């Protein structure tokens, strides 16, 4: 045992490295699963119907106005039809949102919140954990309901179970439809912070006179070819956004290829010529991208150590001629020889159990001679290799 302590230590280090690599990969998977808004396409798609998600973020000056949403929807339908993708067979969704600040009141209690005006299937793409009630939707009969996050609900009511209660925005009453919490995960919590937030429909009474445009557009589209969703969103928006605007493919942003791309451009990643106010879920996704990119360094080291050790072991065994690359061929040929021998023995036993006709006996003799000749040829080849 004392003579082989170095080999045992090396093997133990390899096992520890491999275990560490597996643990890091599992933690990466859990981190990606916490990015719920980025995984909407995976929740929709099936093996027969692949989907992808794309998003674009704009400055307030370049926002998409509410009157342009109808034209956007029609253009998207035409683009899908032109690509041979029927929206009846492959339904698609979109979400538009913009952010402002508003003061919510419950009697004498006030709360300064980040108010998000939404349109489309916002809460389908962003299914935040519900603490009470249910989400608002464009199909609601009345558009005077509001969704609060946990922080806003506690400031206004000192409770999270307040669905059905009323708050006011600019003296206009809103009924609390639901109370939501931040998505799980440390990067969601870090990006969201303790900010009080609320969500209303974009055409709700308090925002009826607002002319601000949507600064965030998100779509979940069928993906017949690679980059179809991002390319279609960029084409449909066309002249509504500057040519330099970046359209993000959310579906592939946590892939190994994109992680390597982010790692190579990490030093210049924060440089931007436009002041784009990203929502907290996009900031969380960017933090996750940076985290996963940096994780490639320890993961590469942990995976490389046992891999290089295995290569060194194979070269050492090949040098000693106890085992090496030539042994692979020997193993295959020996396996074939053993199979032929089993076939021959099985046939011999069958011949002993039943009396064959002379013609059948000659046929079996010829087959047995061929098997024996193959065995001799393989034995000769093994001898030459040795």
Secondary structure elements and their pairing?
Elements: H1 5-33, H2 40-44, E1 51-57, H3 69-82, E2 93-106, E3 109-120, H4 122-125, E4 130-133, E5 145-149, H5 150-157, E6 166-169, E7 172-180, H6 186-192, E8 197-201, E9 216-222, H7 228-237, E10 247-249, H8 256-264, H9 280-320, H10 325-353, H11 358-385
Helix pairs in contact: 1-9, 3-7, 6-9, 8-9, 10-11
Overall description:
The protein has 386 residues and is an alpha+beta fold. It has 2 domains: 40-252, no CATH class; 325-385. The chain has helices at 5-33, 40-44, 69-82, 122-125, 150-157, 186-192, 228-237, 256-264, 280-320, 325-353, 358-385, and strands spanning 51-57, 93-106, 109-120, 130-133, 145-149, 166-169, 172-180, 197-201, 216-222, 247-249. The chain has a 6-stranded mixed barrel with strand order 2-3-8-5-7-6. Strand 2 and strand 3 (109-120) form a beta hairpin. The longest helix has 41 residues, at 280-320. The model has no long low-confidence stretch (mean pLDDT 82).
Q: Given the structure, what is the number of helices? A: 11
Uncertain regions: pLDDT < 50 for 5+ in a row?
A: none
Average predicted confidence as pLDDT: 82
| Overall number of structural domains | 2
Q: What is the H/E order? A: HHEHEEHEEHEEHEEHEHHHH
Class by alpha and beta content? alpha+beta
User: How far apart are the first and last residues' alpha carbons, in Å?
Assistant: 32 Å
CA-atom Rg in angstroms: 33 Å
User: Could you estimate the helical fraction of the residues in percent?
Assistant: 40-55%
